[in-house]
Amino acid sequence: MKISIGCDHGGYALKEHLKAYLTEKGHEVQDVGTFSEDSCDYPKFARAAAELVASGECEKGIVVCTTGIGVSITANKVKGIRCALCSDPLSAKMTRLHNDANMLSLGAGIVGPLLAEAITDAFVDTEFSGAQRHARRIRQIEGENI
Fold it and tell me: What do you get for the CA distance between the two ends of the chain, in Å?
């Protein structure tokens, strides 16, 4: 699977860890930065990761900052993106099953590397349920039939 990944300075170490983890598992990771722990503005990197998913160039995306909040808000501003901020594997699984989320947001100050791996696995490995009620709700999220 091709996965975009982006972060700010607060999420840099976790992004690097997940990039190596995903690559080792056989995924192709497209890293949009940042590429150091120097202070930077997260919207640039979250938007770049989201645009790769929205365009179809990547199947899923992951964004990381200290809390995961700012990058999640930014990613969700891109049309077609459903980015979920998750801090546990069950939430990651359920957002794929019910919301067909195509991006995952993580807070590097909230979850450590091992928990981030488990959350990422749940997100990447879970398919959308395809249930009619969930598909209808996703259409409503996207502005149809409201």
Answer: 33
Q: Is residue 146 a part of any domain in this protein?
A: no
Residue with tokens 């930014």: 74
Q: How many domains does the chain have?
A: 1
Tell me if residue 27 is catalytic.
no
The parts of the chain modelled with pLDDT lower than 50 are: none
pTM (2 decimals)? 0.97
Is 17 one of the catalytic residues? no
Q: Which residue range is the domain that position 75 belongs to?
A: 2-141
Residue 109 lies in a domain: yes
Instruction: Put the strands of the sheet holding 103-107 in their side by side order.
Output: 28-31, 2-7, 60-65, 103-107, 83-85
Catalytic residue among 7, 9, 58, 65: 65
What's the CA gap between 117 and 115, in Å, rounded?
A: 5
* Share above pLDDT 90 across residues of the chain, in percent, rounded to a whole number: 97
CA distance 50 to 65: 14
